[in-house]
Automatic annotation (TrEMBL):
PANTHER family noted in UniProt: PROTEIN FAM180A, PROTEIN FAM180A-RELATED
Top-level taxonomic group: Eukaryota
Record's keyword terms, sorted: Signal
Signal peptide: 1-22
Protein name (database record): Protein FAM180A
Lineage of the organism: Eukaryota, Metazoa, Chordata, Craniata, Vertebrata
């Protein structure tokens, strides 16, 4: 009887540890997605893509000109008509509150992506892709050779992570 009880307790502990570890790894990539300061529950863990149409809309936004200013965390879109769409409110929250901005944060993300063995969730894939876009913009804005090389290395690591997740390697 005591052995059975001990085994049950031990299995519950292992179950709890496995769930905690799974949640830890899921939140490790973009922890700020769970701490959005906007106060709207719908924007907790924000994501733009909810359907194929949303994915096409995100592609159109990126293709038409999506600019994330590094200094004041402001999102600008070249197409004002697209920018006015209510469906893109989560994109604004993602770019302004969730995505990593500094080179050290992006390199830390790259390291976590390298260690990540499972497929990325839809939300993490979207965030990684947007981080890749932001990193490409930072390369274009960098003038110092060494700094530019570090941003380019981060871009390459993000690209490899996306490629690995798509199974194109």
């Amino acid at each position: 009887m005591e052995t059975t009880l001990a085994l049950m307790i031990l299995s519950l502990v292992f179950f709890h540890l496995s769930i905690s570890a799974a949640l830890h790894w899921r939140r490790a990539l973009y922890p700020s997605a769970f701490r959005v300061k906007r106060g709207t529950p719908a924007l907790l863990n924000p994501s733009v893509q909810r359907s194929v149409e949303d994915a096409n809309l995100l592609y159109e936004v990126v293709w038409s000109g999506l600019y994330v200013e590094p200094e004041n965390n402001v999102l600008r879109m070249a197409d004002e008509e697209l920018a006015s769409l209510r469906k893109l409110q989560p994109l604004e929250v993602l770019c302004e509150d969730v995505l990593p901005r500094t080179l050290s944060d992006i390199r830390r993300l790259c390291h976590h992506l390298e260690q990540h063995r499972a497929r990325l969730s839809k939300e993490d894939f979207e965030r990684t892709l947007l981080t890749l876009v932001y990193t490409a913009q930072r390369i274009a804005q960098s003038s110092v050779g060494h700094q530019r090389e570090l941003w380019a290395d981060a871009l390459l690591q993000l690209y490899r992570s996306i490629k690995k997740d798509l199974g194109v390697e």
